[in-house]
């Protein structure tokens, strides 16, 4: 067969010596997108991708678009009788922020009105404690560099902003709505070159004053990659501040009594520091301090103490660790004869909510839920009450919001997404298989009635303690409706079985994640679901690293790969984007032992000439400030050079989007390209008649 003609990419003789190991990097010139040779190469890659015929693309695009016309609805945030929530109607590109009260509902913020081009996204919002003012954050073009504004809820008037450098900032209002704590990066001029993404601090801001006059509360002199959390109790008395180094699964934690020290100079008391655990605090309306922690409890537990004695020696277990389920959330309902706590769990990634006596923690009931799916955060009224709200979705159900009333014991639909869509009849089965070392791993398999082997997409993530739970996916349903199978493996490195499961797939244990994926593929083949020539793998971000490692370790096992916004050069990943915040998950090439872990699987460095690699599509985004597209650029060049077979290696570059939220139409086009590429190379014949 004729080999795919690829744009020329010169190979430089660059070899670094790291801890005595020669590390070649022939495509380092692709790290600079402004290099004329890199620009020429990228333009040629775009032309190559656009010239590639993808049969069935139009049909898949139309089906994904139709399924996304379900729209969306967000769980309400309550302030007295005011409720704040997002809703996206079938023809809108972005969710719109609403406020509702006794007079009805009205729009507070519509990103498309702010930017008719559809490039502006609403990153976060937080009403003040009285519901009179609201802080929100927006970013443009996918860069996630949030700008902070404050509006008057009554008339929508902007009374503050923009305040820049507020990426990933929590907002903790003080009572009265005149001031809040928040997190802001230092000015670029105040940090070393190349470290502009880091160096966050906690500030106190007075509404109406220049942010240049904000008082720094916390963070000076601490780790440059720290992320900070901040919250204030409903009555305004208690402040809590947390710090975690990058994405580490542990945090330091402090509290301050704002009745005993000024808001601009709180006297912080250490709750935990240099402890290998994640802990969060909730200051209860009953005066107790509720502690949510995985300390000595990898699946999570809830303890109680007094805010005056917040340290671990004073904690008393209220909801102990479960032997099988992972504790995910809780809420307190106290407008009853006997106050209760609702506790959210995931059991092998399937959600449930139990009811417990608030004083003793005794389990006294179960909240009815719509099915075997995923439940979002459980929301209560800040002032207390007998109701709670939560979102629910599964593989065939668009996310809806439900209300539970503890007085009646009933769960009712609060609001469905606004669009009606015809969902194909599919079945979801949870299977268990064994990985290379004998570990049992769960996997969801979505399919229509029929027998195999059928074209199959195997999806995974396996990192950062993130769980893959059932959820409505237009891409999944469009694929399955067309006759394919979609499998979601709950690999080690995720959070499906708690923090121990996460740590079994991080740092020096990362190979377990890849082994789990290979074993999932082998299980699907052995059970007749698919065959190696009909099996594709797909993943993004850390999941892009996953499939990049998989295609280099087992190129014989997979027919096709979609690798989106991936990490692939694991020797230099810390130098770009937010990479320096992830060495707590992967390790650092600067440390000899950790370099050995990374060198052992770094996909870019494992590409070998003369190997027949799967058909591979890299999809990357020009405004991605988390994972730089250079990973995919270098890997694509390496694979195109090395490919011994006739399966294509293609690169799809997209501008004005980033790693996270995007307009619906852009999501549709991306999904259509990915699905039709995988259909072509797994033998899925897509037709409108199915």
TrEMBL record:
It catalyses: Hydrolysis of Pro-|-Xaa >> Ala-|-Xaa in oligopeptides. SUPFAM superfamilies: alpha/beta-Hydrolases, Peptidase/esterase 'gauge' domain. The keyword Ion transport does not apply. Its EC number is 3.4.21.26. Keywords: Hydrolase, Protease, Serine protease. Gene3D superfamilies: alpha/beta hydrolase, Prolyl oligopeptidase, N-terminal domain. It comes from the Bacteria. It is an enzyme of class 3 (hydrolase). GO terms for biological process: proteolysis. One of its GO terms (molecular function) is oligopeptidase activity. Residues 472-682 form the Peptidase S9 prolyl oligopeptidase catalytic domain. Residues 10-416 form the Peptidase S9A N-terminal domain. GO terms for cellular component: cytosol. InterPro entries: AB_hydrolase_fold, Pept_S9_AS, Pept_S9A_N, Peptidase_S9_cat, Peptidase_S9A, Prolyl_oligopep/macrocyclase. The keyword Protease applies. It holds the Pfam family Peptidase_S9. Belongs to the peptidase S9A family. This is prolyl oligopeptidase.
């Amino acid at each position: 067969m004729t080999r795919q003609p690829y744009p020329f990419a010169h190979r430089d003789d660059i070899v670094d010596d790291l801890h005595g190991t020669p590390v070649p990097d022939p495509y380092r010139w692709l790290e600079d997108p402004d290099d004329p040779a890199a620009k020429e190469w990228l333009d040629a890659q775009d032309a190559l991708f656009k010239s590639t015929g993808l049969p069935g693309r139009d049909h898949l695009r139309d089906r994904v678009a139709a399924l996304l016309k379900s729209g969306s609805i967000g769980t309400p945030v309550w302030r007295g009788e005011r409720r704040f929530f997002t809703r996206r109607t079938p023809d809108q590109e972005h969710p719109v922020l609403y406020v509702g009260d006794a007079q009805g509902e009205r729009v507070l913020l519509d990103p498309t009105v702010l930017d008719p081009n559809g490039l502006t996204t609403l990153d976060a919002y937080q009403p003040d404690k009285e519901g009179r003012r609201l802080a929100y954050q927006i970013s443009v073009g996918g860069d996630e560099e949030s700008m902070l504004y404050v509006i008057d809820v009554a008339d929508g008037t902007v009374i503050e902003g923009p305040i820049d450098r507020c990426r990933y900032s929590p907002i903790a209002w003080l009572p009265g709505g005149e001031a809040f704590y928040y997190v802001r990066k230092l000015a670029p001029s105040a940090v070393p070159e190349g470290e502009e993404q880091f160096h966050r601090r906690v500030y106190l801001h007075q509404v109406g004053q220049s942010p240049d006059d904000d008082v720094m509360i916390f963070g000076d002199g601490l780790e440059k990659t720290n992320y900070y959390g901040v919250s204030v109790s409903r009555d305004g008395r208690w402040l809590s501040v947390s710090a975690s180094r990058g994405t580490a699964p542990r945090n330091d934690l402090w509290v301050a009594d704002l009745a005993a020290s000024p808001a601009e100079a709180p006297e912080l008391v250490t709750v935990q520091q240099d402890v290998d655990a994640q802990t969060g605090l909730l200051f209860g309306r009953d005066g107790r301090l509720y502690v949510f922690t995985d300390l000595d409890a990898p699946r999570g537990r809830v303890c109680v103490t007094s805010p005056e004695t917040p340290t671990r020696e004073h904690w008393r277990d209220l909801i102990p660790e479960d032997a099988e389920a992972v504790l995910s959330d809780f809420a307190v309902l106290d407008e009853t004869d006997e106050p209760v706590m609702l506790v959210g769990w995931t059991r092998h990634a399937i959600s449930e909510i139990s009811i417990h006596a608030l004083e003793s923690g005794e389990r006294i009931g179960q909240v009815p839920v719509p099915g075997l799916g995923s439940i979002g955060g459980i929301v209560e009224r800040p002032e207390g009450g007998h109701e709670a709200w939560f979102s629910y979705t599964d593989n065939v159900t668009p996310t809806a919001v439900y209300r539970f009333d503890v007085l009646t014991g009933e769960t009712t639909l609060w609001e469905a997404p606004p669009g009606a869509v015809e969902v194909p009849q599919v079945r979801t089965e949870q299977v268990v298989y064994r990985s290379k070392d004998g570990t049992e791993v769960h996997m969801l398999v979505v399919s229509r009635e029929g027998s195999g082997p059928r074209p199959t997409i195997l999806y995974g993530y396996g990192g950062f303690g993130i769980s893959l739970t059932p959820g409505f996916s237009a891409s999944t349903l469009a694929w399955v409706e067309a006759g394919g199978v979609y499998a979601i493996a709950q690999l080690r490195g995720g959070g499906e079985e708690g923090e121990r499961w996460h740590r079994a797939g991080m740092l020096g244990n990362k190979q377990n994640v890849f082994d789990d994926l290979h074993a999932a593929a082998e299980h699907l083949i052995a059970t007749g679901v698919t065959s190696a020539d009909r099996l594709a793998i797909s993943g993004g971000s850390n999941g892009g690293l996953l499939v990049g490692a998989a295609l280099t370790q087992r190129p014989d096992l997979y027919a096709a790969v979609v690798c989106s916004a991936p990490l692939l050069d694991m020797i230099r990943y810390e130098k770009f984007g937010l990479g320096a915040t992830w060495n707590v998950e992967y390790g650092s090439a600067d440390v000899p032992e950790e370099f050995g872990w990374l060198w052992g699987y770094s996909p870019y460095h494992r590409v070998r000439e003369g190997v027949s690699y799967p058909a591979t599509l890299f999809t990357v985004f020009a405004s991605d400030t988390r994972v730089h597209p250079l990973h995919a650029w270098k890997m694509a060049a390496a694979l195109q050079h090395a490919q011994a077979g006739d399966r294509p290696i293609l690169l799809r570059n997209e501008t004005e989007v980033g790693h996270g939220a995007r307009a619906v139409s852009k999501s549709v086009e991306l999904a259509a390209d990915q699905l039709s590429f995988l259909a072509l190379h797994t033998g899925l014949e897509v037709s409108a008649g199915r």
